[in-house]
């Protein structure tokens, strides 16, 4: 889940929080779809005893280990491979994705744990495009027409704030989370937010951490700071509360 959370004078404006289910897991699912369309088997490294060097797009030649693991562990290791592929290969297009104009885009090679290797061109941009334009997305119970891209939730959230504080909201936009590390993500989002900024706002400023570690783990760093405050005890959720209200009490007490 991706969320746009407006903060003013240190307080979260809960009524203006906007969310979308399009996030890192969605991009991972898009990458998995690419592999399925190419009929590629994802073999995690723990199953590879040895491998031979093969040419691009040739079938992998490797010896498989005979290891017994749980299904959850196997799925986790496959997801690790897909995550590495996402970080290494996937890229966000400079502007709205147009497959016809990107036919000649440069390809990026990727080597899988079992030795298979292939180059990926236009599909590496296609996997991330729905984060910005969700019209053609289909999720369980949700059609693309009911989904917002990240630029939309950010501008919608700012628009739901009081008009007097909007300049401050637009003047300090912070990008956090793993998806912001995708190549071209910050440039594309900055460009689209600038186009969506109302003419009454003099300038839209993006505050982005330079180090990838800080940007990836900013949510956890912020959570640790929050937990160190004396007022954090008021946000504790008892087992009885959780059993009665479910996960909604978490969003209510800790937006």
Quick summary:
The protein is of the alpha+beta class. 37% of the residues lie in helices and 13% in strands. The two termini are 13 Å apart.
Helix-strand makeup class:
alpha+beta
Radius of gyration: 21 Å
Query: What are the secondary-structure elements, in order, as H or E?
Result: EEEEHEEHEEHEEHHEHEHHHH
Tell me the strand order in the biggest sheet.
1-4
- Low-pLDDT regions: none
Question: Mean pLDDT, as a whole number?
Answer: 85
Account of the 3D structure:
There is one protein chain. The chain has 255 residues and is of the alpha+beta class. The protein is built from ten helices and twelve strands. It has helices spanning 24-37, 71-88, 123-129, 150-159, 166-170, 185-196, 212-216, 218-227, 239-245, 248-253; strands at residues 2-4, 7-8, 11-12, 18-20, 48-51, 62-64, 108-111, 117-120, 138-139, 142-143, 173-174, 206-207. The strands form six sheets. Strands 1-4 form a two-stranded antiparallel ribbon. The protein is globular, with a radius of gyration of 21 Å. It starts with a strand and ends with a helix. The model has no long low-confidence stretch (mean pLDDT 85).
Topology:
Layout: E1 2-4, E2 7-8, E3 11-12, E4 18-20, H1 24-37, E5 48-51, E6 62-64, H2 71-88, E7 108-111, E8 117-120, H3 123-129, E9 138-139, E10 142-143, H4 150-159, H5 166-170, E11 173-174, H6 185-196, E12 206-207, H7 212-216, H8 218-227, H9 239-245, H10 248-253
Parallel strand pairs: 11-12
Antiparallel strand pairs: 1-4, 2-3, 5-6, 7-8, 9-10
